[in-house]
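Deviation from plan, reported transparently: histidyl-adenosine monophosphate complex.
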Amino acid sequence: MADKSDEKKKLEKFQTPKGVHDILPGDHEYHTFIKKVVRHRCRQAGYRRITTPMFEFTDVFARTIGDETDIVKKEMYTFEDRKGRSLTLKPEGTAGVVRSYIEHAMWDLPKPVELYYIEPHFRYDRPQKGRYRQFWQFGCEIIGESDAALDAQCIQLSYIILKDLGIADTFTLQLNTIGTPEAREEYLQILQDYYVGKERSLCEDCKARLKTNPLRVLDCKAEDCRILSELAPKMQDYLDKDSMEFHDELKGYLDELGIEYVENHRLVRGLDYYAKTVFEFWDTTDGAQNAIGGGGRYDGLVELLGGPPTPGVGFAFGMERIIANMKINKIKVPTKDYIHVFVAQLGREAKQKCLPLIEDMRNEGIKTMGAMGKGAIRDQLGLADKFGAPWTILVGITEVRESTAIIRNMKKGTQETVPFNKVVSNLKKKIGEKNLDKYSPGELLY
Ligand code: HAM
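Because the crystal trials were delayed, the predicted structure below was used instead.
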């Protein structure tokens, strides 16, 4: 006999775990549009697409993002495989791309190597608006050259993508340089000295960060931490000449490109691998100053993962945050997910005639549904309406006998009878050549 609790379990409604969600068809229209824009702009700039695995050895992330960062300390989905090896679902894209660069000796390719990705990532963050445990990022990495013109091109590409998405005006570009790790040493000591005696005013996280990752204290959002960090010594006053010249050069290029930026001395980013340039795009429409994307230069990263000294620069954007922003700003995305024709039929013979007709129409690029069920024609017309089909084809007993079909204009409520073998050409004219869905990747092979 089945246990009562078993029955209860069966009736239980399953839902996604906290912080993850389905991408339903409506949101896929945004995803598709964003992917198209990213692919197009990346292609124009010579990037090639890369996909790294969903999980890597934990060390790939721990060593690069930094042991003392929030991501590594609190947010990684880490598990052991059957042989006890520690693996982690990727919390970000750069470390995996760099691991791949080394594994496949991409230094043999012409430099710089430009790669882009559009992928889900995983962070065990506290779920809230714009913060999820599985989220999508698109990102770009330029590996192999150190030149401020490449940092400028990265920022420019981000900016163009935001512009194509219709939301560039809702963000400010926050820019900073954090110099090289060696140059930062002196500043870190000065920063720690500045906070001596002020620890009590810091939030609990910053009290700990002061010892382990003092730079992060600078960009804490808690009010008291912020007031103190505004008065803190500025990093740029202690950085090396080379980093500052690089930064000035970058600003000159951005000016030339007409890209506005806000110099933000407290911007440090939440990952340890950066050197010199760091930047973020902040949402001006929301007070929380949420970053929609960010990036920077990571000249030591390839070496950190065991490769030869190789510079790099890149950025990534959160797609859920972009979509939320597009919706707030009422940006409508173009979609091809609609049908042209619904086929309503009466009786088995009509259905038999309609199935090959449907195939012919689809092959000609007419998006077609229908020829199902046994409902009355009136009910089928109701269904065609619900699917939003502008045209319905009606095939009943009379039409089968006379080898005709009725084409109904759903908006006007008018209809005409046409010879069955003229239905496709007639509809193609009505729909218009440019609206037909003719693309078929398979065709390219022949
Ligand atoms: P990040 O700033 O950690 O940078 O993430 C980039 C973007 O991903 C964020 O600005 C945000 O839009 C989105 N994001 C991050 N966490 C979440 C979350 N929990 N839920 C929703 N969206 C989120 C990086 O990941 C670096 N790898 C960027 C980079 C590439 N730097 C150099 N190259």
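Residues 92-94, 123, 125, 130-132, 135, 137, 139, 141, 270-271, 291-296, 298, 314-318, 320-321 surround histidyl-adenosine monophosphate (CB under 6 Å). We consider this an acceptable substitute for the interim report.
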